[in-house]
Amino acid sequence: MSDFTSEQLAERTQNHLNEYIIAADRKASILITGQFAFLGLAATALSNLNQAPSGWFRWFSIGMAIVGVIAVFLAVIVIYPRTPSPERGFIYWGNITQYKSGEDFHDAVASLDEEEAMETLNKENYSLAKVAGKKYEYLRWSLRATVVMVLFAVAAGITFLG
Hints:
Blueprint: H1 6-47, H2 55-79, H3 93-96, H4 102-110, H5 114-161
């Protein structure tokens, strides 16, 4: 059994989820940078060819470009802000700004008993977990598409040299 109270566990869970969300955004940003660099390098290499790509080389190059753009799009979806908005909440800025003033917000928070506060925190943790789950789902798909993009580039290179 842990030494955490249920409140400490809920707060720790929220911090953990927020860190995972931030990490997903960072990973996606790094991935986008690499994807754009790879696509830019490939486009430069293709534009420096003396003849237009043809045959399998052409199709592998087109496949690389299409899958690369899809990979970038998936990574952009990861970093696109998601703001869960439960009907009533006290953590998300969208819920806080629904109050007419800071005083109204303070009064609403102060009026919560411990059980209501825990329920609110746990519901908001659940919303954060759903956000993190979606971000990592798209991040995994972007990474898979990036691998396919590189494989298309390798196949194009082998075709060109062979």
